[in-house]
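ok trying again, last paste got cut off:
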Amino acid sequence: MADPKFLTFFRTLAGEEAADFRKYLKRMHGNDTLALEVYDFIRKQKMDKRPGVDYICGKLYGTTSSTARKNLQNVLSDLFLWLKDFLLTGKATDGQFDSRFLWLKIARDHRLEDEFARQAQSLQNDTENLPGQGLEDYLKIISLHHLVLYHRPADKPLPDENKLLRFKNDLDVFYALAQLKVACELANLKNQMPPGTVQELLSQPDFGAFKISGLDKHPLLRLYWEVYQMIASQREESYAGMIALLSKHASHIDPSELHALFSYLHNYAALQIRNGKAAYWKSTHLLNCFGADHAVFTRDGGLSATQFNNIIAVACRMEAFQWAERFVATHGSYLPDAVQEETALLAKAIILFEQKKFKKVLQTLSDRDFKYTLDEIRSRALILRSLYELGEDENDMLDYCLAFEKYMHRGGQSGLAAVRGTLNFVGVVKMLIRRKAPREQILKTIRDTRPIYFDSWLEEKAKRYMRASG
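nice, full thing came through this time. structure:
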């Protein structure tokens, strides 16, 4: 059963917010002692324990009967509504753009023309010089323009030509940027589809009245244009140019936009590596160093478990072991709470493998299951490669290969590019284990098969491979 909404929302509160909400409850609902008792109990629990209704019932009332559960559910429902009011009130009164924009709407609705004019002018002055660091900047600008220009009192004159032209220009920039962002997403999705899948042709983004020549005046637009060319047309020169542009403009781009652009570059480089272009290993590590230096990974929700271990794998490939260990130490806390421990464990195993400590890899990963499919696949691939490096029994290794393949075919996930690349990797490992095929045939299979993971490792093993006699 899903958690009550209050518990879900409460877990997202920072310590100061939780304390402020307690003060709000005391001030606005101080007579509801039961609600205060329940809230105080929940606050005292460690968040990693994630207390549920049964746990709270048992601890507070000594029973988990249906009556006790129903009463607690009612209290939690009230707490959720009060928390919602508390959060909305805070947002509406924090003095930021949304708060001031909301007050403008209230002044308009109540026909407070002088108040509307004063506050509109103040907010326009503050938004006039927004740097265009992200799509949200442009959205704020055009939203304010629209409210001021088209909700004026009947006796007020029409806006002058300069204001209308400014509004039109801001609309053009917003539209062009929004088109580019959607076009990048669609092109990226298209590239992830299995070969042969029926795909709707993606047209070049429509900029409307905006001219491509105007991109240079807006760094964010230029960056997304280059990313689109890189993804849609597989233009390698756009990849190299993007890294230079990001380095130049990183301090003037919203962190969420910087993270999105960085992720596109990361995905592109990973695709090139899967397609056998080993030169991208070095550029990917340099890109990761750039990301760490510019705090790309430290924004909320900015670092997934898969991305974390991709970063570690690339660093190890470049033998930057100290950098990898430092990254684990400094960035592990930015992973989602639910996977921090197991992601750090997998990162440790990756580093151990590249340091050729294969027995320690097996000790670290044996009997461990990972929540995310790609992490489980990476773990099993590390185990398989370690078994091969240690020269384990051929039949045991083949059994492991078969079980690994069965796992990847389960749940219709075999169409994923990462799964296809790993299935192709396992296929070559089985050829190496069986020792029936000629060496040149195995090397040709590695070079001709795309996508394929761990191709450099496979080639290294194939070059030392000896076909079984007889």
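cool. The radius of gyration is 28 Å. The chain has a mean pLDDT of 87.
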